[in-house]
Amino acid sequence: DKGGYPFYMEKEIMEQPRVIGETVKPRIKDGKPDFTAEGIPDEMLASCRRICVIACGTAMHAGLVGKSLIQSLIGIHVDVVMASEFMYNDPIVDKTTLVIAISQSGETIDTLEALKFARKCGSPSISIVNVKGASIARASEYVIYTNAGPEIAVASTKAYTTQLAVLYLLTARMAIARKLWSDEQMKEYMEELQRVPAVMEEVLKSKEEIHHIADTMLNARDVFMIGRGLDYSILLEGSLKLKEISYIHSEAYASGELKHGTIALITEETPVIAVVTQDKLKSKELSNIKEVQSRGARVILLIKGQEELEQEKIWSRIFRLPVMKDEFMVMPVSIVLQLIAYYVSLDKGLDVDKPRNLAKVVTVE
Ligand code: F6R
């Protein structure tokens, strides 16, 4: 049942406010994150010296957001490793390394094998899985389920944002286990997390505006997506989404790295999506954007809030994102990027839910 939408992907995009709520709400007690139902001991969150996230594709991109959160708000070193590469790089994991395996299906063989390897090395482990009772859930010490419900479209949307929701909760629980935040800081963070569904609804109401943005990319051969920090992490996911369902070559690039070679590829024909949501990075991001504009690129700007921009005319499109605290901005941005990929694929007349060459569950290494 596609819920009246032409494709499951659209239905699943639209479901996000609800399933984020269903993932977050049961894990809040007295305004604080709570994993008693999962049995996760605070001692484990307090004692690890580093964290290693193993995952593939979209789930790995969720891990990258988790890394930013945990490093900046908790101060523990986090590595995010592609599960398919994990064992071939002589990984250094031991009982002081908390391993977090992230997987929608819970059956991705690379992730499963990497997790088993880490457990043999003595690492404590938590998995974040969507499908109840899946192999990865069974192979890890503790499991936190994302309550996204079945995800049918091959391109992951609601599984990704619910994985993020769990990572926000886990970060806050780590702060409790390690006695790091003030009551005030905890309260503000948890209130912001609970505001995510409403903010997502707000973005979903701008569907048609986003559809018009997508239209400008229909005939593009290449698309670039640029940003720094968390904006870069979310663009990696947005770019994967566009590639897999629209077959347009797309690259997410850290804005500051462009001028070290890749900017040579940017021409007047290249749409560039630039995301600017992090206050402390804003002036640098805007000056990197000027560099691509001076190569003639048509820049689509996704920017937080209503701030005035010089020369509104030089932008191909501007989308104003609802305002959240910086560390939560990936949530509204991810909806915009999912919808862009969706509409490009839809308007090209492609099979959005079943892109060529891809399978929903990858059980070969
Ligand atoms: C992309 C996508 C894939 C999966 C990856 C891991 O939209 O869905 O990149 O994220 O194959 O799958 P899971 O999460 O099932 O381990």
Automatic annotation (TrEMBL):
Where would you find the membrane-spanning parts of this chain?
none
Report which reactions are catalysed by this protein: D-fructose 6-phosphate + L-glutamine = D-glucosamine 6-phosphate + L-glutamate
Q: Name one GO molecular function term.
A: glutamine-fructose-6-phosphate transaminase (isomerizing) activity
Q: Does the keyword DNA-binding apply?
A: no
- Which keywords, in A-to-Z order, does the entry hold? Aminotransferase, Glutamine amidotransferase, Repeat, Transferase
Superkingdom per UniProt: Bacteria
Query: Per the database record, which ranges form the SIS domain?
Result: 40-180, 213-355
Asked whether the keyword Transferase is assigned, the reply is: yes
| UniProt-listed Enzyme Commission number(s) | 2.6.1.16
* Protein name from the UniProt record: Glutamine--fructose-6-phosphate aminotransferase [isomerizing]
Question: Which taxonomic lineage is given here?
Answer: Bacteria, Bacillati, Bacillota, Clostridia, Lachnospirales
> Which residues of the whole protein does the chain here span?
243 to 607 of 607
